[in-house]
Specification:
There is one protein chain. By secondary structure, the chain is of the alpha+beta class. The chain is about 15% helix and about 50% strand. It is built from three helices and twelve strands. The strands form three sheets. A seven-stranded antiparallel beta sheet has the order 3-2-6-9-10-5-4, sandwiched between helices. A three-stranded antiparallel beta sheet has the order 1-11-12, with no helix packed on it. A hairpin with a 2-residue loop joins β9 (about 105-120) and β10. The N and C termini lie far apart (about 50 Å). The model has no long low-confidence stretch (mean pLDDT about 90). Keywords: Oxidoreductase.
């Protein structure tokens, strides 16, 4: 199979959108990513997958700390900014545990790098969660190469 067919198949899996951030020498670095998942409850671990050609790859290895901000449906421009798809604009950050996070995200998850594993042309960075902050709202989603805005379905017990 060719790369495009593989990418199209992977695009059939709807995901949320995150921005991964870190800071080195007072310079904030960030990238949009949808390759994120929870790994363990005890200890509390998450993982992000980063292409070894991405600028963020070296930063993650240097700093030892990072944050994952889960974006709301009002933050499409923020996602595009950190994906390099939009003109640079001023970004307002909050700070938690010495790490910059995206202001008004649905969740900000602050991590220490726990481990990393090279897998193909990416590295899985496993983060041990040291702090988190939650907000209300609906998630920004990604499906078939396009952003989506999905309202959460509320279930009621009968």
């Amino acid at each position: 199979m060719d790369d495009r067919t593989f990418r199209d198949a992977m695009g059939k899996f709807a995901t949320g959108i995150t921005v991964i951030t870190t800071v080195i020498d007072d310079h904030i670095h960030g990238m949009t990513a949808n390759a994120f998942m929870s790994v363990s409850l005890d200890p509390k671990l998450i993982t992000v997958s980063i292409d070894e050609k991405a600028h963020m790859y070296d930063k993650m290895q240097q700093t030892g700390k990072f944050a994952v901000s889960i974006l709301s449906d009002k933050q499409t421009k923020m996602s595009m900014h950190f994906a390099g798809q939009k003109e640079k604009e001023d970004v307002e950050f909050d700070w938690h545990g010495g790490v910059p996070v995206i202001k008004d995200a649905l969740a900000n998850i602050i991590c220490n790098v726990y481990d990393s594993h090279k897998v193909g042309d990416h590295t899985l960075f496993i983060g041990e969660v040291v702090d988190l902050h939650l907000s209300e709202g609906d998630p920004l989603t990604f499906f078939g190469g396009k952003y989506g805005h999905n309202q959460l379905i509320k279930f009621h017990t009968v």
